[in-house]
Design a protein that fits this description.
The complex is a heterodimer.
Chain A (H helix, E strand, L loop, with lengths): L1 H19 L7 H5 L10 H4 L4 H7 L5 H5 L9 H6 L3 H6 L13 H12 L12 H4 L23 H9 L3 H6 L15 H4 L13 E2 L3 E2 L14 E2 L1 H5 L22 H6 L45 E2 L8
Antiparallel strand pairs in A: 1-2, 3-4
Chain B lengths: L1 H21 L3 H7 L9 E16 L1 H7 L5 E12 L8 E9 L4 E10 L3 E14 L2 H4 L13 E15 L5 E22 L2 E23 L3 E20 L17 E27 L2 E28 L4 E15 L2 E13 L2 E25 L6 E27 L2 E17 L9 E17 L4 E14 L8 E14 L2 E14 L6 E17 L2 E19 L6 E20 L9 E13 L3 E15 L2 E14 L7 E13 L1
Antiparallel strand pairs in B: 1-2, 1-27, 2-3, 3-4, 4-5, 5-6, 6-7, 7-8, 8-9, 9-10, 10-11, 11-12, 11-13, 12-14, 13-14, 14-15, 15-16, 16-17, 17-18, 18-19, 19-20, 20-21, 21-22, 22-23, 23-24, 24-25, 25-26, 26-27
The chains are: A mainly alpha, B mainly beta.
Chain lengths: ~325, ~650
C-alpha cells in the first residue's frame, strides 16, 4: 500500500522534474527575476553606502552569485536576496528594500532555498525540527560575513557556542563531570547532530550511510556481534547513556549499573510461550543473582561485553 | 597521526613557498586577485604556554574527569593563508588545539581553490582514562581495591575529504577516514562462580573509504555514494599470578583461584554501503526529498582461551584445574533504510510536510565454541556449543505536519505520527528460551506554535503526546508527553533574556513494571552589556528527573521498585571586563565559570571557576594567563573527590 503510494507520487513528480532540467526550460532564479524590471541596479551600486559589507562579500562564497551567469544573478548578487534595489538606491530609505532578517523565517528561508534547496545538506530539511520550528537559515549563517567555505562558525568551540546560545539546558548538561569533550573544544555539536535535519531522531548524524553516528568514533562497538545486545541496535546508545553529560560514571543514565539493567531485565512474567512476548524484550533469560552481594551489584563486572559479544550469549566474554 | 604531523609540517613549507613566490611580484599579485593588496597573505594566531597543575584528593578520579596535565602546550593555532596568485590554493586554513600532551589534540586543515577543489582534513586524538573504584570494584567496601573495569585508551580519528569542482553541476568526491583505538586496562575473566580481575590490551582500527558524485541542478539534486569499511579488533587478557578474584570465601571447602590466563580475540570485519539521496522541486508548490541507504557489515572472529587454577563449574559443582577454549563465529548485518518526504504549499500560508520512512535490519551469526576442561582425577571433558543468533528489526514511520501561517507573526503547527514495527531476537536455529519478539505501535499527536511578537520578542513551543500499544522495551517511550517552550526577549539594546522549558513524561503501565518517568528542565539565560567595557553572560538551569520502575528481585522474586532521582542546579557565568588601556593596547579580564550541584541518587558537586587575564605587550602579542579550579565531590563516595588548581600562562601571537 505504502509502496504503491510512493511509486505513484514518484511517477507524478518525475516527469515534471525531468522536463525542467532540459536546456529549453528556464532556470528558476532567472525566471523568478523580473527580467524587464528596470529596478535592478547591480551590486556595484550598493558599494558606496555599504562599503564594509561589499568588501567582505568579495571574499565570501556567495561572490559566485555575482560572477556565475548560470545562477541567474550575475552582477546582481545583493539583489538576489534583497530584491530590486532601484527604489532604495534613489531614496536611501530602508523601507524601500527587502531585509530578509525582518521577514518571517519561512519567507526568508525561501530566499536561501532558491539556490540551496537542491543540495545534499538539505536532504533532511523536511524532517528537521529546526525547519518545523522556523529557525531560519540566518539564525546560524551570517550571510555577509566572510568565511573559508561557509558562513557559519567552523571552530569547534565557536560551533558549540552558537548551538548553546539556544540550547542552554543541553549545554548545562555538558557542565556535568562525565561528558563528551565539547566544553574542551575537542568535539562539536555537529559531530553528532546535523542541524539541517536527518531521518534519525534528534537529527543525529549517521556513519557508513546508515549506522548510528556514534560508531564514527566508537568503531570497536560497531559489530555486528555474534550476540547482539538488542537495545544498542533498536534504541541506540541513548538507551543506557546520557550522551550530553551525566553525574554518573560512563555517562550512564542511572547511578548504579544494576538498576539500569534491571529496568529491562525485570524478571517479570512474560506471556505464555517463549516466542511472543507482547510486553517487552529483555524478559528472558531470567537471572537469579543475589543483589545484596556486592559481587553482583555491578552487572558489567561479569557481563563485561555489554555492548555485544562475539562468543558468549550471556555477554560474559 | 603521522600523516597529520606530516601535514602539520607541510603547512609552514607551503607558506614559505608561497612567500617566495609572491615576494618578487607584489604588483602582479594585486592586479591578478580581487584580494586587496594591503591585506597580509598570512593571518592567524599562535597561542602557546605552560600549564601548572596541582591536584589534591583522588588523582585517578581527576584523570577520569578532567585529565589535564602539566607542561608546555601548543594551546591553539589558527592560520589562514591566502595565495594572491591562487596557484595551489586560493585559501588554506589550519586550526590546531591542545597539542603537547593534552588528552585531546585536534587538527583541521582546509584548502580550497574556487571551482577546482575543496580539501578537508580533520584529526583528533582523545585520551580516555577511567579508574573509579566505586564503579566496579565489588570488594571496595572491604578495603580491597582491584581497579576493575578500568582502562587508559586513546582514540584517534582521521578524516580526509576531497571535493572536485565545487559549485559546478557535477561534483565528484572522495573520502577516507580512519578510527583507531589502543590501550590497556583491567577487565574481568568470568569463570563459574568467580570473576577475576586481569590485565588486558586493546587495539582496534576501522578504515572507511567512500566516493561518490553529487549532481546539483536547479530543480533537482542527487548524490550517489559507494563506500566500504574494513575493521580489525584485537583484544588480549592475561594473568600469570595467583588471583583469588571477587569471590573470597571458600566454596565447598575449597578456595577458588586463577593461576594463569591467556585469552585473545581476533576480529576482522568489512562492510560495503551505498547511499542515494535526492531532492527536487518539480513544481513551485512542491519539494521532494528521499534517500535510500544500504549497508552490509560482517565480522569474523577467532577466540582462544587457556586458563588454569582451582576453578569450578558452578552448575555441576565440578572443580577443574585447566580449561582450553576455542571459538570462531561469523556475523552479518544487512541493513536497509528508505525515506521519502514532501513539502506541499497548496496555499500561500499553508505548508504540508509528509514523510515516510522504513528501516530493516537483520543480524544473523553462526559459529562454534569448543571447551575442553581438565580435571585433577578424570579424563578431559570436551563440549561443543554451536553459536547462533538472530536480531531482526522492521521499523516504519509516517508523519504528517501542517503549518499554518495565521499572520506574519504567528505560525501554528499540527501533526500526526504513526510508528510501527517488530523485532525478534534469539537463537537462529532453535526456538525456545532465549528467543523473544516484540512489536512497536505508537500514535503520536503533534502541535507547535511560533510567535514573533516583534524583532525583540519571540516565543516557540511544541508538544508531542503519544499513546502506544506496544514498545520494544519496558523503558521505551510508551504513553508519553513531550513539551518544549522557549522565549526570547530583547529588553534593551544591552540586555537580552531567554527562558526555556522542556518536559518528558513517560508512563508504561505494564503489569509489575508500572514505569513512571518524568524529566523536566528549566533554563534562564541573560546577556547584559551595561557599558562598552563590561559584558556579562549568565545562565541557570534547574533539572529534575524522577524514575520509578518495578522489577522482581532476582534472588527471591519479590516485587521491588527501583527509584532514581536527579535534582540538579547548574549555573554558569562569564564577566568580561575591558581594563584601562596603555599605549593603545587594551587589556582584558574575564572571570566566571560553572557550578553543578545535584542531589538524589548520586549527589555530586562539580565546580569549575576560572579567571582569564589578557595583557597586550605589543601590537599582535598578548600575554594570556588563565587560572582554573576543578572541585569534585560525591556525597556517597567521598574518597573519590578531588580539587585541582590549574594555572596556564603563555603568549598569543597574532597577525
Amino acid at each position: 500500500m505504502l509502496s504503491n503510494r510512493v511509486a505513484a507520487l514518484i511517477l507524478l513528480c518525475w516527469p515534471a522534474g525531468a522536463q525542467t532540467t532540459t536546456p529549453a526550460a528556464p532556470a528558476p532564479a532567472p525566471a523568478a527575476a523580473p527580467v524587464a524590471a528596470p529596478a535592478y541596479v547591480g551590486s556595484e551600486t550598493c558599494q558606496p553606502c555599504h562599503e564594509d559589507i561589499y568588501a567582505a562579500f568579495q571574499k565570501s562564497p556567495h561572490k559566485l552569485v555575482d560572477t556565475q551567469k548560470r545562477r541567474g544573478w550575475a552582477t546582481k548578487a545583493c539583489e538576489s536576496c534583497h530584491g530590486p534595489g532601484g527604489k532604495h538606491a534613489a531614496s536611501g530609505d530602508k523601507a524601500d528594500i527587502v531585509n530578509p532578517s525582518h521577514l518571517p523565517p519561512a519567507e526568508a528561508d525561501r530566499d536561501c532555498l532558491k539556490c540551496h534547496l537542491n543540495q545534499p545538506t538539505h536532504i533532511g530539511r523536511i524532517q528537521s525540527s529546526h525547519a518545523k520550528n522556523e529557525v531560519s537559515c540566518t539564525a546560524c549563517h551570517s550571510i555577509h560575513r566572510n568565511g573559508p567555505n561557509g558562513l557559519v562558525p567552523r571552530k569547534m568551540a565557536a560551533v558549540n557556542e552558537l548551538c548553546a546560545s539556544c540550547h542552554t539546558a543541553v549545554w548545562a548538561e555538558f557542565q556535568r563531570p562525565y561528558k563528551h569533550r565539547l566544553p574542551e573544544g575537542a568535539m562539536s555539536c555537529v559531530d553528532c547532530h546535523n542541524p539541517h535535519g536527518s531521518i534519525f531522531p534528534a537529527s543525529a548524524q549517521s556513519y557508513a550511510a546508515i549506522e548510528p553516528g556514534c560508531f564514527r568514533c566508537h568503531g570497536n562497538l560497531r559489530g555486528p556481534f555474534t550476540f547482539e545486545h538488542a537495545p544498542v541496535r533498536l534504541e541506540g546508545c541513548g538507551a543506557c547513556h546520557e550522551p550530553h553529560g551525566s553525574a554518573n560514571p560512563r555517562m550512564l543514565a542511572r547511578a548504579e549499573v544494576r538498576f539500569l539493567c534491571l529496568e529491562c531485565h525485570a524478571n517479570l512474567p512474560t506471556a505464555p510461550g517463549p516466542i511472543k512476548n507482547p510486553t517487552a524484550l529483555g524478559g528472558v533469560p531470567p537471572a537469579f543473582h543475589d543483589l545484596l552481594s556486592p559481587q553482583f551489584q555491578n552487572c558489567t563486572v561479569c557481563h563485561m561485553k555489554v555492548h555485544g559479544s562475539y562468543v558468549n550469549q550471556e555477554l560474559l566474554r | 597521526m603521522r600523516l597529520g604531523l606530516a601535514l602539520f609540517v607541510t603547512i609552514p613549507l607551503l607558506a614559505q613557498q608561497a612567500a617566495q613566490q609572491t615576494a618578487p611580484a607584489p604588483a602582479d599579485a594585486s592586479t591578478a586577485s580581487p584580494t586587496p593588496s594591503t591585506e597580509p597573505w598570512i593571518t592567524g594566531t599562535l597561542d602557546f604556554g605552560f600549564r601548572f597543575t596541582s591536584v589534591g584528593g583522588d588523582n585517578d578520579v581527576y584523570r577520569s574527569v578532567v585529565n589535564l596535565g602539566q607542561g608546555p602546550r601548543l594551546l591553539g593555532l589558527d592560520l589562514t593563508i591566502v595565495d594572491p596568485k591562487k596557484r595551489l590554493f586560493d585559501r588554506l586554513d589550519v586550526r590546531a588545539n591542545n597539542w603537547g600532551g593534552d588528552p585531546y589534540n585536534t587538527l583541521h586543515l582546509n584548502a580550497s581553490k574556487r571551482g577546482i577543489y575543496d580539501f578537508n582534513f580533520d584529526y583528533r586524538d582523545i585520551a580516555y582514562f577511567s579508574l573509579l573504584p566505586s564503579f566496579a570494584d565489588p570488594l571496595v567496601g572491604t578495603g580491597i581495591v582491584l581497579d576493575e573495569d578500568s582502562y587508559f585508551a586513546r582514540r584517534r580519528m582521521s578524516d580526509f575529504q576531497l571535493d572536485l569542482f565545487p559549485g559546478h553541476r557535477i561534483v565528484p568526491y572522495l573520502a577516507y577516514g580512519r578510527d583507531s583505538g589502543e590501550g590497556t586496562g583491567i577487565t574481568t575473566f568470568e569463570s563459574g562462580l568467580n570473576a577475576y580481575p586481569v590485565a588486558d590490551t586493546m587495539f582496534d582500527k576501522t578504515d572507511n573509504y567512500r566516493g561518490g558524485v553529487r549532481l546539483e541542478f536547479n530543480r533537482f539534486h542527487a548524490t550517489l555514494e559507494q563506500g566500504g569499511t574494513t575493521l580489525r579488533d584485537d583484544q588480549q587478557a592475561y594473568d600469570s599470578t595467583v588471583n583469588y578474584g571477587n569471590y573470597t570465601q571458600p566454596y565447598f571447602g575449597q578456595t577458588l583461584d586463577l593461576a594463569s590466563l591467556a585469552q585473545a580475540y581476533g576480529m576482522r570485519g568489512s562492510s560495503i554501503y551505498s547511499k542515494v539521496l535526492f531532492t527536487a522541486n518539480p513544481f513551485s508548490w512542491m519539494d521532494v526529498s528521499g534517500q535510500f541507504l544500504y549497508s552490509r557489515p560482517e565480522t569474523n572472529v577467532n577466540y582462544t582461551q587457556y586458563d588454569s587454577g582451582n576453578l569450578v563449574l558452578e552448575q555441576a559443582i565440578l572443580f577443574y584445574t585447566a580449561e582450553q577454549a576455542l571459538g570462531f563465529a561469523t556475523g552479518k548485518q544487512p541493513h536497509t533504510t528508505g525515506s521519502l518526504g514532501f513539502e506541499l504549499r497548496p496555499l500561500k500560508r499553508v505548508r504540508i510536510l509528509q514523510t515516510w520512512m522504513r528501516d530493516r535490519m537483520h543480524t544473523s551469526a553462526a559459529g562454534l565454541f569448543t571447551d575442553m576442561i581438565l580435571q585433577p582425577v578424570s579424563a578431559a571433558t570436551t563440549t561443543l556449543t554451536p553459536l547462533t543468533s538472530l536480531l531482526a528489526m522492521n521499523y516504519n514511520q509516517e508523519q504528517t505536519d501542517v503549518l499554518l501561517e495565521v499572520t506574519h507573526k504567528l505560525t501554528l503547527r499540527g501533526g500526526y505520527r504513526y510508528v510501527w514495527g517488530d523485532a525478534e531476537t534469539g537463537n537462529m536455529l532453535i526456538a525456545g528460551p532465549g528467543q523473544e519478539s516484540s512489536e512497536l505501535r505508537q500514535q503520536v499527536g503533534i502541535a507547535g506554535i511560533n510567535f514573533r511578537a516583534s524583532q525583540k520578542l519571540s516565543f516557540n513551543g511544541e508538544f508531542e503526546g503519544a499513546a502506544s500499544d506496544h514498545a520494544y522495551f519496558l523503558t521505551s517511550l510508551y504513553n508519553y508527553q513531550k513539551m518544549r517552550a522557549r522565549a526570547r526577549y530583547q529588553i534593551a539594546s544591552t540586555l537580552a533574556l531567554q527562558a526555556s522549558f522542556s518536559l518528558l513524561n513517560n508512563q508504561n503501565p505494564a503489569a509489575g513494571s508500572n514505569y513512571d518517568f518524568l524529566s523536566r528542565q528549566n533554563s534562564l539565560s541573560a546577556s547584559w552589556t551595561p557599558s562598552k567595557r563590561v559584558s556579562i553572560l549568565g545562565e541557570y538551569t534547574r533539572s529534575t528527573l524522577r524514575s520509578n520502575i518495578g522489577y522482581l528481585d532476582p534472588a527471591f522474586l519479590t516485587p521491588v521498585t527501583a527509584l532514581y532521582r536527579d535534582n540538579a542546579h547548574n549555573a554558569s557565568a562569564l564577566v568580561d571586563l575591558v581594563l584601562p588601556g596603555y599605549a593603545k593596547l587594551t587589556p582584558r579580564l574575564a572571570f566566571g565559570g560553572s557550578l553543578f550541584i545535584s542531589s538524589g541518587s548520586r549527589p555530586t558537586t562539580f565546580y569549575q571557576p576560572l579567571v582569564r587575564l589578557s595583557l597586550p605587550l605589543h601590537k599582535g602579542v598578548v600575554w594570556k594567563s588563565e587560572y582554573r579550579y576543578y572541585g569534585y565531590d560525591e556525597a556517597f563516595y567521598q574518597y573519590e573527590g578531588f580539587r585541582a588548581h590549574l594555572l596556564q600562562t603563555g603568549l598569543a601571537i597574532s597577525r
